[in-house]
Structure prediction request, 230 residues.
Amino acid sequence: MDRRHRRLGLPRATPRRRTGSLRRAGGGCLPPHRRSPQHRRLPAPRRGRHGSPRPRPGPLMSETRGAGGGEALFYTLHVNGTDRDVADAWLGESLLYVLRERLGLPGTKNACDQGECGSCTVLADGLPVCSCMMLAAAAVGRDIVTVEGLGDEDELTDVQQAFVDHGAVQCGFCTPGLIVAAEHLLSVNPEPTELEIREAISGNLCRCTGYGRVIAAISGAAGARTAGSD
Prediction:
């Protein structure tokens, strides 16, 4: 810039001096966990992973004031073919928590609570989902099926019996999620290959069996169903 100004005969530009002192980024501010809430208004809550806003009260959901003065929800879930009311619930409760603690369905297991192990797998509108990663309020209006709803109370399903016959049940903690995943697989693919079985249960962790007996059980149940339909 100086060379250009000399060539054009222009006076050399002098930098403008700022008045006052500059404040470095974050200077003078306390760490976020030590700031007083009076510093400024809290930002709006972030949206979910897919940009979806918080569930709003609808025909099957209403908001009330809880005993502590906070916001509470009342809604109805359709679980295992029956409408179940959930009262005085917090918006952030997972479907896993509500199924176990509010509706008394302990078959859905709580292991990682991060959607990694598949022990909490249920069917939502016929699709397998990790109930620990789904808000219970977001399940309103959906058809939810847990391992308890796959068959009669007094009898094992053919998939459950196959797990017993093939020794695919050891500690049993992951078994409900595996059975739900297997039921979904056989409902959409009655004659799966071993590779398809492995893919279907790839989201379910088992530390006991090594999967060999689980795969054999699912394959055996598929064969029995096919033979029975002939």
About this structure: The chain has two domains: 61-149, 158-229. Residues 212-229 form the longest helix (18 residues).
